[in-house]
Amino acid sequence: MKRIFSGAQPTGNVHLGNYLGALRNWVSLQHEYESFFCIVNLHAITTRQDPALLAQKTKELAQIYLAVGIDPELSTIFIQSDVAEHAELTWILNCVARMSELERMTQFKDKAKKQRENVGVGMFDYPVLMAADILLYQTDLVPVGEDQKQHLELTRDLAIRFNRDYGDTFRIPEPYIPKVGARIMSLSDPAKKMSKSDDDPNGCVMLLDDADSIQRKFKRAVTDSGTTIRFDESRPAIANLLTIFQLLTGKSPEQIEDHFAAKGYAQLKQELADVTVEFLKPFQERVRATTDEELSRLLEKGRDKARQIARVTLETAMARMGISGARELAGLAARI
Ligand code: ATP
Ligand code: LTN
């Protein structure tokens, strides 16, 4: 069975962009792939976090994975820092990655611009940690939103270079970026992606928002001076609202355009708000359903399963590089 790996950071709140661009696809792909879904708390600390809040958000994200429909019987859910191999492989890959390729990462450039002189080394190294996450599990497919495409390319480059220099060790992963929903835009600025770190909270609908907030955010959503409601890339605000509507209702673009043919923007926003509230209602009920005991049992099971696989890959990579230390190289070679 082929494997998928993906993750999300336990920072801030999960929003519709995260769901429609990534989590939603994890849920459907888990039936066809052996699946690993990680809570990437080591990525989270590349920016300053409040320790108590980070711990709470880590738990909350595990609950959200379950509530959106990730089935722990089918998929492995675990916390990144529980599997030390992620940090260990990162060091090895740091010795393969080049400064120049990390300097080209657009996410790093954007974040570095905001932080000026306080750019952490961890933030610079973020994509290498992500490559380690993926490569440890001999991943075939990585379902992510459009913003992670460049990181996936780097992951592939590092794997190819390592394999070339030290012998075949890592499977080369493919990105899985959905045709629809890979880049949900901010409701208040359709030129920017929907993001939890957005300064304007109205641009971003959180999965745990209450009905009033959802209604308010859609009501205020930026549109344009036109009147027709069509999927038209040259009118990004309306196209974005229609894309959200399409994904939440499962209707085709033609059905949606017909439905709104004689209606105005206010009606579109109202219907979209109602659809979103209804869609999120059962999800929000499920979030609170898991007990702490169930959650920690599940995360321990996930940790153990992840470790087993991660260990083999890490030891293989170390052996290939000649850094197995006292471990027996011959014994390892047999396991590769
Ligand atoms: P944010 O920009 O909100 O801080 P992030 O990328 O840091 O998001 P994560 O929680 O780590 O947040 O991302 C989880 C997944 O959500 C990733 O696969 C990412 O590509 C995807 N994603 C994030 N924002 C969007 C968006 N606006 N549209 C579609 N997918 C998105
Ligand atoms: N950088 C990703 C989160 C992430 C990830 C991964 C996604 C960390 N490691 C491995 C896929 C595979 C983000 O969306 N911010």
Catalogue the unreliable spans: none
Widest sheet: strand ordering: 1-2-3
Strand proportion: 5-15%
The pLDDT mean sits at 95
In the CATH hierarchy, what is the class of the largest domain?
Answer: Alpha Beta
Total helices: the number is: 14
Q: Which fold name corresponds to the CATH topology of the largest domain?
A: Rossmann fold
Q: Can you tell me the number of structural domains?
A: 2
Primary descriptors:
55% helix, Rossmann fold, 5 strands, mainly alpha, 3-stranded parallel beta sheet, two-stranded parallel sheet, 14 helices, 336 residues, globular, 2 domains, binds L-tryptophanamide, binds adenosine-5'-triphosphate, Tyrosyl-Transfer RNA Synthetase
